[in-house]
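Running log. JK asked me to keep both predictions on one page so they can be read side by side. First protein, sequence followed by its tokens:
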Amino acid sequence: MNLGRYIYQKLLIIFKLDLRSLALFRICLALFIMASFLSRFHLIADYYSDGGSLPRSELINVISSEYWSLNLITGSVFGQQILFIIGIFAAALLLMGYRTQLATIICWVMLLSLHNRNPSLVASSDDILRIVTFWVMFLPVGAYYSCDRALNTSNKTFPEKFISGGTIGFILQMFSIWLFYFHDADSLAILLVILLTFIPSFVWNFLFHKSYSKEISGLVINYDRDCGFCKKVVYLLRTFLILPGVIIREAQANPSIYADLEKYNSWVIEDYQ
């Protein structure tokens, strides 16, 4: 094996991330973002409105012109509450993995706007959270355990691991933060969430085989082909109940099963027996 090939294979090992680990990381990151907005919600009147300690007219004089913030479009308490709610809602979409990339972009924009509105309230953990959210925009964090995955009914198979320029940049950025950034308690908490992205594939495979059984592996859900809502719900259930081996079929494909579906007005579940 030549040196170039050897280095390439080693880089694949280092910079490939398991998509299931990225999904778990997405969930924890979304919770951190929600907590960041919720923990400040009661401070809106005192610190984020024109009636508080830092009105917009004074903020413009103390920050660089390169800084921007959506929170500067209004100085009212109600207007700020709306912006906070948008941030919380975007984090909830990220948590569920619905329109994941768009939700991540909105989360980053709202975090940046929040932090630039009152820099005196920004801690090192906020800087890390903002940086991490930026890099997540370039990672497939919605490939597993997400609404995006559940509602994607194509036959395309997803790999366990993924490597791209995004994963390489993310890993290098996180490594530099871990080495050089100031570590207070909150920063360490976010960094430990970050470590979830490096859970290796064999851990997920081990948990899958330990939790799986012939009862689960033999399940087949037959739904009404004419009910588009039913189809979406079935796929959502399979994803969020973590039942990837469950087979989903149209009841109309089997006359006997379809007769049962019409008789009982219900999906038909087949077990391993």
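And the second, directly underneath as requested:
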Amino acid sequence: MLAPHAPGAANHETLAGVRVRRFRYLWPTRLETVCYQGGMLPNLRQHPWNYVKLPPFFAMECLQLAHELMSGQYTLLHSHSLLPQGLAGALAALPFPIPHVTTIHGSDIFALRNPLFLACKRFVLRHVEAVTVNSSVTESALRRLTSRLPPLVRLIPMGAGKQNGDGELIASLRRRYRKGDGPLLLFVGRLVMEKGVDDLIRAIQTLVPVLPDLSALIVGEGCDRLAVEDLAVRHGVGGRVVFPGWIEARELGSWCQAADIFVAPSKTSPEGWVEAQGLTVIEAMMAGKPVIASRSGGIVDSITDGESGLLVNEASPNELAHAILRLANDPGLGARLGATARTVALAKFSRESSALAFSSLFERLIDQPCPTA
């Protein structure tokens, strides 16, 4: 796996048996701020000076990728996102007879809409053997982008693992964070504007008079963390909204099961980003939790309103508050939604089914005649 370097990250390491190499693109390391901490688009939006770092970022990615391919040890190239990884892969792989598949995750198709970026995306799609998308909404955006699609187009959602919790940790979290009779809300994700945490805070402020024991956990990090923490204080709910930062992935199931309601109020960003799939929504469904989510992008592929969760409109704190109150007043409804959600997630969005779908696609591409270099 080839990934961008960042301050504090190793240049080389092995994770779960996978060799990871991170390419340097600026010196000293503290200047490498294009990625992570909320993602590339939010980082560019918050710190426009990061745009001047994009040329060296892209050049070093292409060079490192070409160096890897020259070793001759690879039989397939899989790039994640059309830009910049897909473009780097398409250019670096041109001299090599190796099949190339790119996966569209969302921001790469919904945002970056100027003519140059659109032309680059179409170039990538003309130079890959297959493209995968993570939701029906992403696939529709792909088909609007171009009629010259690769030979293979596959809808393969990113899978989630079974979110089994640790009983002791669950009890500890509830004792620590739940107030009185609750409910305890949980948000997990990047703390950036498009994830809608500000709408959740406004909804909590609305609900305090009728749900005096309401509390919330905002799990994650991102470039807007300080802004949303300040918003909670200014709206008078700072004492009932906790920001634990990132948690260990292996503990996610326990945090989900410690909460009473999972909330995912995503909304469209100024650049056009939408929630292409909503993996944390599926992880909460795996844990059997009732989910309240916005009708944003691919979330509607996993949540059927009133059956496997509750859907609200984007950027609507009042609707969000009404849905929270509905579940708080009807625990039986939450239990039914959570049970159905787990059944749906296990059947359609498991990590195993995702891995099998990608494996089948890889095998087909490897077995077919290689493209001419």
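Observation for JK regarding the second prediction: The chain has a mean pLDDT of 94.
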